[in-house]
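Recall the central idea of this unit: under ordinary conditions, the amino acid sequence of a chain determines the structure it adopts. In this exercise we apply that idea directly, starting from the sequence alone.
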Amino acid sequence: MKTPHVVVVMGVAGTGKTTIGPLLAARIGVPYAEGDDFHPPANIAKMSAGTPLTDEDRLPWLDSIGAWAHGRAGLGGVVSCSALKRSYRDRLRAAAPGVVFVHLAGDRALIEDRMSHRQGHFMPTALLDSQFATLQPLEADEAGVEVNVSGSPEEITRRAALALEDLPEPVR
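Accordingly, the structure predicted from this sequence is:
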């Protein structure tokens, strides 16, 4: 049996990281961690006020997620994290070299519509433009897959799980 990957479900706000992450974790039989739970209170306050985070704001958050991913090496796990920039993904890989990414991607209009209908989340739709401006999609040398977010959560999860099966064994 293949060693399970440590997977970072990434993408801009509203792509479904918090929905797909736990579904994917359940499907591949590993624990799930919600990336938003790793944010310090100051980051949540900034985002709630409609202020985009700076790279400096994100470093402790990325380091906490990286430490969690490192602890799951060889065991597998799924964590949600926007991981919008290559430098953020490089930082996560430095902490957990075998991590792979599932980039949830889709049409801006669909994502904005989904964001406008969700309840109780701190990220306002006003920050969506800054998210897309910051996004650097996975590059060819990065371990991961892009999965389109059209369709039901179950369809998206199925596509992500199938794509992960095609990746090589994780580095430990």
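The first helix runs from residue 17 to 28.
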